[in-house]
Amino acid sequence: LVPPPPSITIQAMERNVTLVGKQLCWSDALFYCRDFNWDLLSIRGLEDQEMVDELVASAPFPLTSHLWVGLRRSITGSSWFWMSRDPMDFTQWDAASQHSSPCGGVSSVERSTWRQSSCEEHLDFICVTGPTEGDNKVHFYSSTRQKQTQCV
Question: How far does Cα 39 stand from its chain's mean position?
């Protein structure tokens, strides 16, 4: 049996939030969260961002410099959205974040900083466990990847 990856879970704002110490590309992180939790985390406001910063600071295992969350950019434009369909009313983009990738994450080094990253980059990630009121599992994300294979 393969042991589970290191993780730490906290309860915050009526959600269980789990930081997973397993480096996966964005789509594999999404599938992992949907298989074992509920979804990749959406950061809905300053309180959520502060909770993420505290969770990252308390991690008892080493982290990648950035962490996947449920951030995606529209393929047809420059607008960003949460996979959970939560409103994008709050952002913390790093001014230097200029990347053509449609995937986004949070920094584990600089507090309250979001950055675009290549979707193929293997990063640790943050899942949320639900369902709770306001969290909607999204079913429309599709991939050509076979469920048990990892992206490059």
Answer: 8
Q: Is the peptide bond before 6 cis (omega within 30 degrees of 0)?
A: no
Report d(CA 68, CA 43) in Å as an integer: 12
Q: What is the pTM of this model?
A: 0.86
Calpha distance 137→130 (Å, rounded) = 9
Q: Which of 77, 122, 129 is nearest to 100 (CA)?
A: 77
Residue 65 is classified by DSSP as S
Residues with Cβ < 8 Å from 107, sequence gap 6 or more? 65, 66, 67, 94, 113, 114, 115
The pair phi, psi for residue 145, each rounded to 5°, is -70, 140
Q: Which residues contact 82 (CB under 8 A, 6 or more apart)?
A: 42, 44, 70, 71, 72, 88
107-141 pLDDT, tens digit each: 999 999 999 999 999 999 999 987 554 444 444 44
